[in-house]
Amino acid sequence: VVDKFLFVDADQIVRTDLKELRDFNLDGAPYGYTPFCDSRKEMDGYRFWKSGYWASHLAGRKYHISALYVVDLKKFRKIAAGDRLRGQYQGLSQDPNSLSNLDQDLPNNMIHQVPIKSLPQEWLWCETWCDDASKKRAKTIDLCNNPMTKEPKLEAAVRIVPEWQDYDQEIKQLQIRFQREKEMGVLDKEKTIQESGWEGPQKREE
């Protein structure tokens, strides 16, 4: 029986054992998300959750990022969190503009009805929002978009994550090996067919 599940974005580098996150105490909340960092001050003008609707709605609570989260399925079902989120989604779906960042905005919008446990900041470090000093404590590094520089993610990965090039080379070698074995398998199959004298399916005489 699955009692918890973790979501991790594909553009995220994990630097720790995720069992630690699975075992994290959510203090009765159905799920846990990491809040957006506040430490990179030059990005203050881009922190949309600090003013307007979000500042009013959150009422001092943090705005959380959806790139990584853990869900306690027992608690989630017990409080009918799915039904609550679905109901709010139906209301938002009338306005297409409200769905632009749904996976993140929906749980933050429902924070009063479906509480969020804030994970420690080191569970998600993103250069866009977090200062350089906090990077050494990062359990995961997220390649989130930078609205100021608009740097492509693969370029950012090479620059930000020292181990990225090792991972990249490992994957490339795996791809080369897979392709080589695939081609060899095809050639071996063709050779076996030729040696057996089999000419393929024959047309049946009526």
TrEMBL record:
GO molecular-function terms, A-Z: UDP-glucose:glycoprotein glucosyltransferase activity; unfolded protein binding
Alphabetical keyword list: Transferase
Cofactor: Ca(2+)
Record SUPFAM superfamilies: Nucleotide-diphospho-sugar transferases
Coiled-coil segments on the chain, per record: none
GO-annotated biological processes: ERAD pathway; protein N-linked glycosylation via asparagine
Catalytic activity: N(4)-(alpha-D-Man-(1->2)-alpha-D-Man-(1->2)-alpha-D-Man-(1->3)-[alpha-D-Man-(1->2)-alpha-D-Man-(1->3)-[alpha-D-Man-(1->2)-alpha-D-Man-(1->6)]-alpha-D-Man-(1->6)]-beta-D-Man-(1->4)-beta-D-GlcNAc-(1->4)-beta-D-GlcNAc)-L-asparaginyl-[protein] (N-glucan mannose isomer 9A1,2,3B1,2,3) + UDP-alpha-D-glucose = N(4)-(alpha-D-Glc-(1->3)-alpha-D-Man-(1->2)-alpha-D-Man-(1->2)-alpha-D-Man-(1->3)-[alpha-D-Man-(1->2)-alpha-D-Man-(1->3)-[alpha-D-Man-(1->2)-alpha-D-Man-(1->6)]-alpha-D-Man-(1->6)]-beta-D-Man-(1->4)-beta-D-GlcNAc-(1->4)-beta-D-GlcNAc)-L-asparaginyl-[protein] + UDP + H(+)
Segments forming domain Glucosyltransferase 24 catalytic: 2-174
Taxonomy, superkingdom: Eukaryota
Stored InterPro entries: Glyco_transf_24, Nucleotide-diphossugar_trans, UDP-g_GGtrans
Chain's role: Recognizes glycoproteins with minor folding defects. Reglucosylates single N-glycans near the misfolded part of the protein, thus providing quality control for protein folding in the endoplasmic reticulum. Reglucosylated proteins are recognized by calreticulin for recycling to the endoplasmic reticulum and refolding or degradation.
Protein's recorded name: UDP-glucose ceramide glucosyltransferase-like 1
Protein species of origin: Mustela putorius furo
